[in-house]
Design a protein that fits this description.
CATH topology of chain B: Rossmann fold
Shape of chain B: globular
Structural class of chain B: alpha/beta
Number of strands of chain B: 5
Strand content of chain A: 15-25%
CATH architecture of the largest domain in chain A: 3-Layer(aba) Sandwich
Radius of gyration of chain B: 16 Å
CATH superfamily of chain B: Thiamin diphosphate (ThDP)-binding fold, Pyr/PP domains
Order of helices and strands of chain B: HHHEHHEHEHEHE
Shape of chain A: globular
Largest interface: A-B, 28 and 27 residues
Distance between the termini of chain A: 49 Å
CATH topology of the largest domain in chain A: Rossmann fold
Radius of gyration of chain A: 19 Å
Largest sheet of chain A: 7 strands, mixed
Oligomer: heterodimer
Number of helices of chain B: 8
Order of helices and strands of chain A: HEHEHEHHEHEHEEEHEEHEHEHH
Number of strands of chain A: 12
Helix content of chain A: 25-40%
Number of domains of chain A: 2
CATH architecture of chain B: 3-Layer(aba) Sandwich
Strand order of the largest sheet of chain A: 2-1-3-4-6-5-10
Number of domains of chain B: 1
Distance between the termini of chain B: 30 Å
Chain lengths: 294, 211
């Protein structure tokens, strides 16, 4: 079961179990979630979808709004900024179709800028799960608060879930080894890329707030940040956490460019250097640069 | 929503003078004065919600809200200053009676739809120029099609939309399934009757005001 399918089940269950929960859709996911008195499909009207979510929050409900990433985050961006943020209201936004998931559909259905765009607004908690089981845990936690929470679902997923909150260290290298932080669905490729490398490898499914305490406890020197969306989205967060020590950061992710290709997600992943070979190659170049610099 | 009435309609000019500053949209503020007065003095009940979507030129709103005890009279004097709760566009977290923080046009009506879906009777004030924003029509279309009878929009029509609304504003709402009334935006009795008229779907009152 994909993250998306898991979310639809979870949304249906939440409607049944928690009378505070209301779901707002704009045709996408509507049938999969199914009819319910507190499930409102507003048609193909994403600005209204966010406005309605805000109105429901104002009346004490816990709204969940869902659509394909560019139509959830980018098209109604001012509604997200004003109707939720400026009004001081919360909602759970759950996207599907991350970065290059819709490789064949082209640029109109791709929004690797999603996390950076939401991170530019105050007060957003941003989750990037790498496995359907993580979706369940993070969605349940989001429903239990009144915060503004974004959960980015993707068709890429890691071979296994990671338990634990914040930055979770999966294996430790030697004292001077690079610290490699894999975000969400980049973990499996990152583990393959670093399998025979002296490196500390960590994982996080939450990038806002980024777990600075664990970074400070574990990282310094060379840091490799592997994000499945726009490269550099969390670089400043890592730098801020490690402000008190010499640090170099290698930021991997989707390049800031119009990438006019169709094809398969795996082809895009490779083209962006986010498959195991690409990640390995970037890390080797990064470490070699350090050695040249003496 | 209602609180003890402290001042009357005739006191509003004095309150507006206290708000005097370099607010450039003063004509706009005045266009909404009578609609706001009727809403706050005669229509809004304890359980109702009001959304000031047309946040441009909010002096009339501040004056009425102050007259009805929703914001302190003293707040009027510092209008727009650093320490004031009253800005050139209202912030609903500072002035909850505004319902929504507005200024960017076309946000109030969609939020009002959400509030009405939750069961609340909602009155949302928009301007005819504001209706240029497409986001309003997402709300108008949906509310009319689903027959959202708890939603009431008031359009203050002072012909400020550059390209106008051929065929009339009310006709456009009616096409989407709303009921409508078009009245003189200065006639308090007509406004009250139109705002409180029975309707089994979303209802719009077009309040015509000379520019």
């Amino acid at each position: 079961m994909t993250m998306r399918e898991r979310f639809y089940d979870l949304a249906r269950q939440a409607l049944e179990r928690d009378e505070r929960v209301a779901v707002v859709t704009a045709e996408i996911g509507t049938d999969a979630i199914g009819p319910h008195a507190r499930h409102f499909n507003v048609g193909i009207r994403e600005q209204l979808m966010i406005g309605v979510a805000a109105g429901l929050a104002l009346e004490g409900y816990r709204p969940v709004a869902h659509s394909y990433t560019p139509f959830l985050v980018e098209r109604p961006y001012e509604q997200v900024k004003l109707d939720l943020g400026h009004q001081g209201l919360g909602a759970v936004l759950v996207s599907t179709g991350a970065s290059y998931d819709a490789a064949r559909a082209g640029r109109t259905h791709q929004a690797p800028e999603d996390v950076a765009a939401l991170a530019a607004l105050p007060g957003w908690t941003i989750h990037v799960p790498g496995h359907p089981d993580e979706v369940e845990r993070l969605f349940a936690r989001a429903l239990a608060t009144d915060d503004r929470v974004y959960i980015r679902l993707t068709e890429e997923e890691n071979v296994a879930r990671v338990d634990g909150d914040g930055v979770v260290v999966l294996r430790r290298g030697s004292a001077d080894a690079p610290f490699v932080l894999a975000v969400g669905p980049t973990l499996s490729e990152t583990l393959k890329a670093t399998a025979d490398l002296d490196a500390t490898v960590a994982y996080t499914a939450t990038v806002r707030p980024l777990d600075g305490d664990t970074l400070r406890a574990e990282a310094g020197g060379d840091v490799v940040l592997v994000e499945p969306y726009l490269a550099g989205t969390s670089t400043a967060e890592v730098a801020a956490a490690l402000f008190d020590r010499p640090t170099r950061i290698c930021s991997l992710g989707v390049p800031l460019a119009e990438f006019r290709r169709y094809g398969a997600p795996a082809e895009h992943r490779a083209a962006h250097g986010l498959d195991a070979a690409g990640i390995r190659s970037s890390i080797e170049r990064f470490l070699a640069t350090r050695r040249r610099g003496g | 929503m209602a609180t003890a009435t402290t001042l009357g309609y005739d006191d509003l000019p004095a309150l507006l003078r206290r708000l005097a500053g370099d607010e450039k949209h003063d004509w706009s503020a005045l266009s909404t004065l009578d609609v706001l007065w009727v809403l706050f003095a005669r229509v809004l009940g304890e359980e109702d919600r009001f959304f000031l979507s047309k946040g441009h030129g909010p002096m009339a709103f501040y004056a009425v809200a102050a007259a009805k005890g929703h914001i302190p009279l003293g707040a009027l004097d510092g209008f727009g200053s650093f320490g004031s709760m009253l800005g050139y566009h209202p912030d609903a977290t500072l002035v909850p009676v505004a319902g929504v923080g507005s200024g960017s046009l076309g946000h109030g009506l969609p939020i009002a739809v959400g509030s009405a879906l939750a069961g609340r009777r909602v009155f949302c004030l928009v301007g005819d120029g504001e209706l240029d924003e497409g986001s309003n029509w997402e709300a108008v279309q949906y509310a009319g099609r689903v027959g959202l009878d708890r939603l009431r929009a008031v359009v203050v029509d002072n012909r400020s939309s550059t390209y106008h609304w051929p065929g009339g504003i009310a006709a456009r709402f009616e096409l989407e399934g709303w009921t409508s009334a078009t009245v003189d935006g200065r006639d308090h009795d007509a406004l009250e009757a139109a705002l409180t008229a029975a309707s089994d779907t979303a209802h719009v009152v077009v309040a015509e005001v000379a520019r």
